[in-house]
């Protein structure tokens, strides 16, 4: 069985590859990457490294050839670019005769108010229309997304948020990636949706976890969106990114990431990495 990973040298895909190599023969793994030279370590371990670029769809036909199970890691960039790239990957999977697609989506993709959600809704629809069986991994929020806040608190700042009492199902990137590896290495052939989430918690609760790790009290500063944008701008967030960071806070406030599900724990067949452990790792 050939398992292919897009984004195999990225933050998420590299963990998936590392986990799969513990149980899957390297010769059964394909790494589809934009820059094959960056996958030299995987190649040295026996992984079949192929050039595959979402912006060069003709490269994807060869990258996906002979593949039984394919992980499509959602791309970076603006929404229009990502939709185009994801469509190219799905179309190539159809041409290559891929048997199963595993796609990293977002929590509650159909209904989410997150700015990211339209890309994932569109991509899920492309995959459904392809006729290829699938697993949608609807990842909630990476704890790593809060690294800036955690480091700011370490430096003595308050925990800043405009998300109010909105809850987030934080889990570590490694937990999400290990779950993807479980699905890829399995023999499931039915279409399935996994809502992958940690136990929902508020910003104040995550701030308290961070304080516990640091051994200090952490003040939580709740502000409105305008004040949040202003403070983030002062902290060096680029102007183009300000609407995005504010929109994330608003979506959290609206409950977009307040997802209760034990799918992640079931796939991992173990308890999730405690938030305190994840915070400790981010603090170095």
Could you explain the architecture of this structure?
There is one protein chain. The protein has 284 residues and is α/β, with parallel strands linked by helices. The chain is built from 12 helices and 13 strands. The model has no long low-confidence stretch (mean pLDDT 97).
Short recap of the structure:
The chain is of the alpha/beta class and 284 residues long.
Topology:
Elements: E1 3-6, H1 11-20, E2 29-33, H2 40-44, E3 48-51, H3 57-63, E4 69-72, H4 79-96, E5 100-106, H5 117-130, E6 134-139, E7 141-142, H6 147-154, E8 159-161, E9 167-168, E10 170-171, H7 173-185, E11 192-196, E12 201-202, H8 203-214, E13 220-222, H9 225-234, H10 242-253, H11 263-268, H12 275-282
Parallel strand pairs: 1-2, 1-4, 2-3, 4-5, 5-6, 6-11, 7-10, 8-13
Antiparallel strand pairs: 9-12
Helix pairs in contact: 1-7, 3-4, 4-5, 8-12, 9-10
Question: Any descriptors?
Answer:
globular, 284 residues, seven-stranded parallel sheet, 12 helices, Rossmann fold, two-stranded parallel sheet
């Amino acid at each position: 069985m050939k398992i292919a990973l897009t984004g195999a040298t990225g933050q998420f895909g590299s963990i998936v590859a590392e986990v799969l190599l513990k149980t899957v023969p390297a010769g059964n793994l394909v790494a589809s990457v934009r820059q094959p030279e960056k996958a030299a370590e995987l190649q040295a371990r026996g992984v079949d490294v192929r050039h595959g670029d979402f912006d060069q769809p003709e490269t994807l036909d060869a990258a996906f050839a002979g593949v039984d199970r394919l992980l499509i890691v959602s791309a970076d960039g603006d929404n229009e670019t990502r939709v185009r790239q994801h469509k190219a990957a799905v179309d190539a999977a159809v041409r290559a005769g891929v048997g199963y697609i595993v796609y990293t989506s977002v929590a509650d993709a159909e209904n989410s108010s997150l700015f990211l959600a339209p890309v994932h809704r569109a991509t899920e629809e492309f995959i459904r229309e392809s006729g290829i069986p699938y697993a949608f991994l609807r990842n909630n929020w990476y704890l790593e997304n809060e690294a800036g806040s955690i480091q700011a608190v370490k430096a003595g700042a308050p925990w800043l948020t405009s998300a109010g009492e909105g809850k987030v199902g934080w889990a570590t990137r490694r937990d999400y990636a290990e779950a993807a590896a479980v699905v890829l290495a399995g023999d499931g052939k039915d279409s399935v949706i996994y809502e992958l989430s940690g136990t929902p918690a508020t910003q104040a609760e995550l701030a308290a976890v961070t304080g516990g790790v640091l051994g200090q009290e952490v003040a939580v500063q709740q502000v409105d969106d305008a004040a949040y944008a202003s403070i983030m701008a002062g902290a060096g967030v680029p102007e183009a990114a300000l609407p995005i960071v504010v929109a994330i806070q608003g979506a959290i406030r609206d409950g977009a990431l307040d997802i209760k599900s034990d799918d992640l724990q079931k796939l991992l067949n173990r308890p999730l990495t405690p938030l305190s452990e994840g915070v400790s790792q981010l603090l170095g």
